[in-house]
UniProtKB/TrEMBL annotation:
Protein name, as recorded: 1-acyl-sn-glycerol-3-phosphate acyltransferase
Classification via PANTHER family: 1-ACYL-SN-GLYCEROL-3-PHOSPHATE ACYLTRANSFERASE, 1-ACYL-SN-GLYCEROL-3-PHOSPHATE ACYLTRANSFERASE-RELATED
Claim: Repressor is one of the keywords in the record: no
Family named by the database record: Belongs to the 1-acyl-sn-glycerol-3-phosphate acyltransferase family.
Record EC number: 2.3.1.51
Single annotated GO MF: 1-acylglycerol-3-phosphate O-acyltransferase activity
Record's catalysed reaction(s): a 1-acyl-sn-glycero-3-phosphate + an acyl-CoA = a 1,2-diacyl-sn-glycero-3-phosphate + CoA
Pathway where this protein functions: Lipid metabolism
Amino acid sequence: MLRTLYGFMIMWGYLFVSIPTLVRLKKLPSSMSVAERDEIVHKMPKHWAMKVVKSTGAKVEVNGLEHLPKGPVLFVSNHQGNFDIPLLMAHIPKPLGFISKIEVKKLPIISSWMELLPCVFMDRKDRRQAVKSIQVGADLLKAGHSLVIFPEGTRSKGGPISEFKTGSFKLATKSSVPIVPITIDGSYKLFEEKGNRFYPGNVTITVNKPIQSEDYEQISVKELSELVQNKIQENLK
């Protein structure tokens, strides 16, 4: 219980302290390159993520970082728990935003940082809005930002991977960026497994080899989804 209280204090305390930085970063000149802007904007969120993950006592092993290509990419990851986002922010050495459910937009401070990263908020219940969100995400990828999607749509909490939703893969087909499959194994142990309490656990993050646009442009979105899911599944214990 004490670890959980300490973890939430770190999480929300750091966010409140970050408000002046958030306000300042919103005023960055538009003349800056995407790469330069992202490096500056992501510095504090990355530090926040490292602090939050560390508060659980987690031991994190990261494999395959040598596979990370230069330039914008679409990261596709399985989704085991709430700590997946801070784990990726802390341990993937590349600025990245997320495709997030629209409910997160109601969270104070967090949503403001997500808009700045930038992230895309999607309402899966509203098909028209979801289609627009995919186009917004594709435009961000074309502009040079990297994004993460969790195509299961929900947390598995240590259970088997759910079938990937194919619609989110249009982010790649509309932008022609490399797809990097990521396997997260063990993140549910940090929170969900112990009744939503912060708890130590071993987590393995595996960065798979990228799938280049020329490798997926000749196959259907469904085939692409199955290909990526199989690559992620192979690294789960």
